């Protein structure tokens, strides 16, 4: 989502791993004067923790050496974390997935053990998890590589189908981790893929009906370069790792680079140092070319029933459009009805409420984004963006302990299960 980050956006190509030890986190009330509040922070060493700074507040973590200068600004700010570095430490160390795979008595066609969701994982483990899902469901799945990232990493997915074989029914497309720091997304999406397969193998009516009528194309990590950078160099990195000639900052926001309504004023940034930098031209990132080619291929062959771009955080279900606060999708009433039902299903699990509606009037304007492109260009019947738990930065923001992975998966699977039964 929209943010302006000093540290995360301006790291040089070669840098020591960023430490946030001693950084103090605040939520600042802008009192409808967001630009002035943001300008007042100029010169301070801070990082934005905002997911949706829609001009009512700004979440930041201030470096210890600048705390006195920040407090002298006398902003309307409340402390959310005394030591943001300690919050990062609560995410724990990555566990090796290979250890959880070697379970005594486990056959190749058994689904992976749920202990995978007890920790976060490196990119290679996410890829191996998809391979293990495929091994457990060999006659109804395949692993595919949609293309490569800027740095040559594969953008991988798993394709699931039912009794009629591959490519026979409309597509359900899930993208995850386009914004690298949103760690909760990939395991949540992987858990839901697990549940689709598990239900079909057990002949659960809802899963059988869904998979026999739709083909799933699930890519949990579509920004692999950025994701790797979050655990090797800077936990709060958001964009891809593209270097632009003459630019002092690195990276393009892939979710402002979709080639549709790309340059609508107010929905993205032309500043390479901004977290919402849209690039020099629509669709000019390598990752975007991979995603558009793959999605358009499905649009032309099977058609697309449901497209989702999974994000965190804020607990939102976002519908078209982001580029305009007055235009809505032609089937907006239908999409709103379904989103309301999904929210109720999610709420029934852990009590969390997801706000839903057309993106621009619900949160703020965004341009060059996936859901608008998928709806108007790729002709997806339903085109949504999800923001997963938590609701705000004070509840953890981008940084959640691994104990929240399974609850996130369970509540969102409840929402998807309801949706599949009702669309």
Automatic annotation (TrEMBL):
- Name a biological process GO annotation: proteolysis
What start and end residues bound the annotated signal peptide? 1-16
| Annotated keywords | Carboxypeptidase, Hydrolase, Metal-binding, Metalloprotease, Protease, Signal, Zinc
Presence of the UniProt keyword Zinc in the record: yes
Q: Which cofactor does it need?
A: Zn(2+)
UniProt GO MF annotations: metallocarboxypeptidase activity; zinc ion binding
Q: Which residues form the active site?
A: 387 (proton donor/acceptor)
Q: Which SMART domains match?
A: Zn_pept
Which intervals hold domain Peptidase M14?
119-423
On the tree of life, the source organism's domain of life is Eukaryota
What family classification does the UniProt entry report for this protein? Belongs to the peptidase M14 family.
What is the protein's given name?
Peptidase M14 domain-containing protein
